Amino acid sequence: MEAIEKTRDERSSGEWFGHPKGLSVLFATELWERFSYYGMRALLVLYMVDYLLRPGKEEAVLGLGALRRALESPFGPLDAQPFASQIYGFYTGFVYLTPILGGYLADRWLGRRRTVALGGALMVAGHFLMASEPMFLLALLLLIFGNGAFKPNIVTQVGGLYAADDARRDRAYSVFYVGINIGAFFSPLVSGTLGEVLGWHYGFASAGVGMTIGLFTYMLGLPNLPPDRPRQKRPAPTPKDKAHSRRAMFSVLALFVPAALFFAAYEQQGNTIALWAESFTDRGVDLLIWKGEIPVTWFQAFNPLMVFLFTPPLVAWWRAQARAGREPDTMTKMALGCFGVALGYLVMALAALLNFGGKSSWLWLALYFAVITLAELYFSPIALSLVSRIAPDRSRSAIMGLWLTTSFIGNLLAGWLGSLWASLPSLAFFALVAGVAASAGSLIAFGRAPLAALMRE
Fold first, then answer.
1. pLDDT over 90 percentage in the chain
2. Is the pLDDT of residue 382 over 90?
3. φ, ψ for residue 293 (rounded to 5)?
4. Which end of the chain has fewer CB atoms at under 10 Å, N or C?
5. pLDDT tens sequence across 244-282
């Protein structure tokens, strides 16, 4: 049946570059959505610390006083930087929690197409509301719930373009991932520059323009996308199905703590690393092709750029190791990813040790991003592949949602960890973050054998 539907879709929409036209639609839509997300994220902490949370400004933001009181109740008095870090952590954390609601909404009521459109519209409104200081918290809520409706359903539609046995499916997701990183690369250069040079609200507005383009792209390309199928009652799960689901769930829960610690360290990029780039980095560059000062937000483009550069040789390296019978297994790769993040923060600790209270060269940050990007490639995509492999078809969305909650908890921890930035010396802070990442790697390394047995690799 799926093969017949695939043939029908291809007759109606044709193909581009060996893939259904719908892949190009989803590629472009996701590119612009990631442009808007990472453009706004590149500005968020700087905007709060340097502008919104200054005396006389904070009182104008609706609900911010109540939020401050709620956070200060467990954490004590918060200055601008710790308060901004907590808000950043809650925002990025809930971005990874609401997709569970978005998937449920699409499956039970609206269907994927309408849920994606709803999510896009909410994010457009949220980005433009960022230009209104009193509406700051409402804007963040719209972006959180918009992302929750948008993200899981557009990713699922990529797979819906192909029959279950179509070998192009894996390559399609690789193409889709390129779109994510193209948007993530250009957004700090555009939105970040506008925000730093012309004003914060211009940067946020440019993110809104990007999301608007993405939404229009999606709506115009709907004829090329798979239709929503009517929900059908599934047969009751067998005891074997239940056992498979339980084993997959226990496997994810066993990785919950190390994964949360990984993300708590990794997600300092848009938070305390941005503050280091602003206040403790000599950003002057004198090269043959360009001379000037690197804007703070441009450093947020280093990671996606390096994803482009490092992925092909790393995959080739793994392939060569596999041929020689020496490719690390899944658990080893994930542990190496955690230790790689620890190494990245030890690089920053060394930079802090050697700057003697002055400013460090921007090359330290370049080295940090190179190390942490390699670490990311050893952990994040490997973990997604693992969860997809161990989860049975009937509960894959639920178990993937459970995995995404590790990013939710990790980002909340990242916000709390970042709040220590103002009270600790930079050297001590970076050493602490390195210790958090190394703890995650140690938990995976020491638990490797029982985890592998649980997952039946």
1. 56
2. no
3. -115, 130
4. N
5. 777 777 888 889 999 999 999 999 998 999 999 999 999
Superfamily of domain 240-457: MFS general substrate transporter like domains (1.20.1250.20)
Residues 312, 262: Cα–Cα separation, whole Å: 24
> CATH 2.40.30.20: does it fit domain 1-226?
no
CB atoms within 10 A of CB 218: 25
**For the packed helices 168-187 and 200-220, what is the interaxial angle rounded to 10 degrees?**
150
For residue 240, give both structure tokens.
């074997």
Q: pTM for this structure?
A: 0.82
Query: What are the CB-based long-range contacts (under 8 Å, 24+) for 349-357?
Result: 349/427, 349/430, 349/431, 349/434, 352/280, 352/425, 352/426, 352/427, 352/430, 353/427, 355/280
DSSP conformation class of 59: G
Q: Pick from 49, 38, 79, 37: which is nearest to 276 by CA?
A: 49
**DSSP state string for 436-452:** HHHHHHHHHHHTHHHHH
Bridge partners for 143 per DSSP: none
Are 1-226 and 240-457 equal in CATH topology? yes
345 HSE (CA, 13 A, CB side): 27
